[in-house]
Amino acid sequence: MREIAVRGFINEKFNTTFGKGLFRRAVYNGSVELHKPNQKYLVDYFSYLEWEAQARSDEQMVVIKKLESTNVAQENDLLFSWLVHYDPLTKSKERVDGYSIYSPNSRELFIEINDEMHQTQDDWTLSVHQCKSTGANKPVFIAANVDLSLKH
After folding, report:
1. SS3 for 76?
2. For residue 7, which of 105, 152, 135, 131 has the smallest C-alpha distance?
3. Which of 4, 11, 84 has the alpha carbon at shortest distance from 46?
4. C-beta of residue 79 within 8 angstroms of C-beta of residue 57
5. 88, 14 in Cβ contact below 8 A?
């Protein structure tokens, strides 16, 4: 099983403006790190309606239709994110197929990545752990299928 770690941070800019009538609506920002091969993705967790409005590609519309056929869209406590591949060397960001759903109440996180170009086509359901020490540049939650205290 491929190792994955998702770190979520409180979006310090939540509900601030970045243009006339435009607000930052992501409740959490985060990173997704995979090993073998190493890949990094960025996530921004929104309410369903805010997230759905960002769908652009045909693949994202397929995800929206799939979720609309379930009760997921009506769940008030769920947060959703599209995925962006991040290359730390070039600092380039590129949207990729996939999405994540985070449930703060049940402390579960689902993520599906379909990024053939970066050898990542998989999905995971992870338990979320709240972090005890929070603050600037410290995550408020972590979801992983590996012991992060072990050095790789």
Report:
1. coil
2. 131
3. 11
4. no
5. no
Task: Please name which of 107, 112, 117 lies closest in space to residue 77, comparing C-alpha atoms.
Answer: 107
Closest CA to 79 of 145, 19, 128, 144: 128
Q: What single letter denotes the amino acid at residue 35? A: H
User: How many other β-carbons are positioned within 10 Å of the β-carbon of residue 103?
Assistant: 15
Question: pLDDT tens digit string along 41-87?
Answer: 999 999 999 999 999 999 999 999 999 998 887 888 999 999 999 99
The CA distance from 105 to 128, in Å, is: 10
3-state secondary structure of 6: strand
How confident is the model over 88-129, as pLDDT tens digits? 999 999 999 999 999 999 999 999 999 999 999 999 999 999
pTM of the model: 0.89
Count other Cβ atoms within 10 Å, centred on residue 97.
Answer: 18
CA distance 115 to 112: 10
